[in-house]
Each structure stands twice: as C-alpha cells, then as structure tokens.
Amino acid sequence: MSVNGFRPRYFAKAMAEQGWKVRVLTRHFSGKETSAEEYRKPLSTAFSISEEGAVHVYRTPFKNSWFTYYEKGFLRRTGLWKAVYLIQLLAGRTCQESYNAYFRKYLAQVLETNKPDIILVESGPTNLVRLVSKTAVKYGMPYVIDFRDLYYHEMYRDFGLLPFNKKVKILLEKWYMRRSITSAQLVFSLNKEWLDILHIPTDKRLMISNGFDSEIWNEIPPQKEFEDFTISIIGTLYPREFIHAFLGSLNVFLQNRPEKVKVKFIAPGSKALVNLIRETLPFEQVEVVESRLPYREAIVIMAKSQILMYHGWPGYKCYISTKVYDYLRSGAKILIVPSDENGLDRLIEETGSGASCSTAAEGAAQLEKWYCEWLEGKLIRRGIDTGQQDIFSRNSQSLILVKSLRNYVESHRIRLGRD
To answer: pTM of the entire structure?
Structure first.
C-alpha cells in the first residue's frame, strides 16, 4: 500500500490470476502515510487477516527498535549511537527499514498453518532475507528472493574509493546476504549488476525490472493543451554530490525568469534537502510539496508536465529508479542531470524519450531549447511505442516472475495443492 509495495502487490495479483493461492505477510500500514516519519512510528494495531480479491493478506503490528535507539538524543550526543549501530550491524541488522520483530513471530505462525509450496521474500533490506532463509530451512520449505529496489547504494560504487566505515558495512551486508542466499532456489533482481555483486549462479538468477501501472495510466486522459511550461520532479532526491548539478541546471535556466514556467518538486525528501532546494532555487516559479501523494495523483502531474527531471547516479552501476518507467509512459521529455554514464543514459537514448546532460550548464541549455520549442508550438510529446509499453509495464514483468516460479515448481515436481 505504499511505493515499496507496488512490486509485490502486482506479483501477488499475477499469481492469483494464474490460479495460485497467495498469502501475503506485510506491515500494518494504510498506504496513506505522507512522510518517512509516519512509517517509523510504532503501530499497535492487532494482527489481522483479510481477503483482497483472491489474495489473503496478513498484517502485523509494527515496532522498530532501531529507530527507538536512534531517536534518543543522548545516544547521538555522547557518541553511544555509534556503538549501538556497530552492535546492530554485527547482529545482522544491516538496514533499519525492515527490522520488525513482529515478522519473526507471525511468519512462523503463517507457515505452520498453511505450509506453502514455495515462499517469495520481497526485500530491499537484508533482514527479511535472513529471517525467511532461517525459517524456510527450519521448516524444509523452498524459498526464492526478489530484491525489489536498489537500496544498497554504495555496493554499486567502486569499493576501493569508499571510506573505511562504509567498507566494513558493505562487507557485513554481503556476508549476511550470501549466507542467506545459499539455500535459496531462485534469486530475482532489478538488474544484472546486483546479481553479479552477490555472485548468484547463472542457473539461479533472473532479472525482472520495475514498471508502470498500465491500468491506471490507461485511465488518465491524454493532455492536449498546456497553459504553462511545467517542469516536474516526482519523488525522493538524494543529497549526494550530483544533486548540485541537478539543481544548478534549474537555477541557470530560471535566472532569466522565463514566462509561464512552473517547477514542481513532489515529496523530494528530508528537511535538509527541501532547504537546499529553496536556497538554490529562490524563484517564485518553484513549488515544493513536501508530503507524498497517492500514485494516481503523482502520475496526473507527470501527464500534465512538459519536462520530467531526474538526477543520474554517476559513478554507480546501472542505477535506474522505479519512477523512470512512469516518466517513460507519460510522454513528457525526460531530462537526466547529471548523466549516469551507464544504463539510465542508454534507456533514455534507446527509447528516444529525452536527453542526458553531464553539467548544470548543459542541462540548462537543454531546458532552454525545449522551452523555445514549446513557445513555438513545436515541442512534441512522444510516448514510448506500444511494444515498449508492454515491456515496461508491471503486468508484463510480473508474468515473467510467475512463469519462472511455475517452471521451477514443475521441474522439481513440488507437490501442488498447497499455497
């Protein structure tokens, strides 16, 4: 029910449509949370079971002790937080988002009650993979892993260039993940690089990209007339070194105060990042919406924009955000600043959907070019063609996963009739 839930939600739906019985164990959130802080708050809501279409959904309460430690000011002021952090790492809690003790309790309960044919663990952070691996081995059940996002940013960088503390963290993460993956039957990932990083054997790996929701996009009417030249940036930005080129391109473009121009940032991230945006772009044309928006509202904004911007990840291997697929579907021009010099640039070039620029000056020049075309009525919205839409939809990618699971079940003669 949030952005991290789109991928498993579509997988569950596709499995159910193929006649599988599907049970989902997830956190007890509503999907209406508008900030990261709301996702961190403990929830004492009772464990519940509901039927959503053909899928049984089990929702656990939520409490994350990692955040409890971090929010104690004296731990940070005295430096004790670093000791707590090290203890957490050594215990295998390498990423905070999924450290939820209730999963441990209810996973065993669900497996003992239903005894599934196969378990799929959806993971960004390591902790769920470790938990499912231990539990599945204990009960003698096959399990597969899907790494649903690119959460481990630094693993995509040149290891030799990282500071010592990050090297230690990465080595611990790799060690724990490789142990957990050893017993897995299959491993899915957004990209080949991640499968290589974890040394997944070729016969156990499959790449399944993210995509856009074709059903919702098909309900959005095409936009024909635009009163303003709207540049939109949807979702989280990262305060890395490349953010300065990204914001700088907008700063240079807006310094001439072009008429009928609007720039919209939707839920860009932390307070510090919001402040950086406002300091770098002190123009009346710039609007910052700090709260997250429902998916449908976000794609309506994309559909009404002439330009959609995203920062690349130079120095990282093939880092493509989920939002890029919605950007492709929108038909708007896509501007990447700075270039990622990798898979994202290739995707933009192959789809003919926009441009990648290395510097702020190049990015500003590209915006100026598109702005002039728009004034002359020559800016063409070019969506990806029908064949590409089929490839980049979540429905298509979900069917790839379901087919792979079915092939595994049939080839290993797993007894069917369970979940």
So the answer is: 0.86
